[in-house]
Design brief:
Layout (H helix, E strand, L loop, with lengths): L26 H13 L7 E5 L5 H8 L4 E6 L2 H18 L4 E5 L2 H7 L6 E6 L7 H11 L3 E12 L11 E9 L2 E8 L1
Helix pairs in contact: 2-3
Amino acid sequence: MSRIIAGVAGANPLTSVPGTATRPTTDRVKEALFSRLESLAVIDDSRVLDLYAGSGALGVESASRGARSVDLVEFDAKASDACQRNADLVNQILGGKKVSVHRSKVESFLERATARDVWDLVFLDPPYPLDEPALSAVLAKLSPHLDEGAVVVVERSSRSAEPDWPEALECFADKKYGETKLWFAEPS
């Protein structure tokens, strides 16, 4: 069972997505990821976007650790329901609505985003079958909505090739954790 690791809502269990269509980020990877993000000082008071959110575990972890606002974007009905339950839990603990759930395809969500929709921290954990050209197109749509100093984290299978970064993004680090690989990028 997945849980919120740290922050105000730390140790609370998260609702998982039923079935095998999603692959949750393990607590080990989540701990290492958030340790890295805290060393980069990008969580506190940040605007977070969690694309292909699954259960929303990364987004609600960010809210628990001090993010100003979190948008969870998930199209699958079961996953979106899990996101909503986890968002409700964290919002109740925080005493306000910091986490919002958007049942939408990622591409549609980004196409509807306005110039005022800007994020400081973005997680992308797309389904493995999503091919590199489709991921590259999403990254290109995301780029105009990143604040200066933003960090983008892409989670893929360790067997996947590095994402084809659009000109507006530059990879500055990567890290492998067993079957999972994380890439970190920033606006160039």
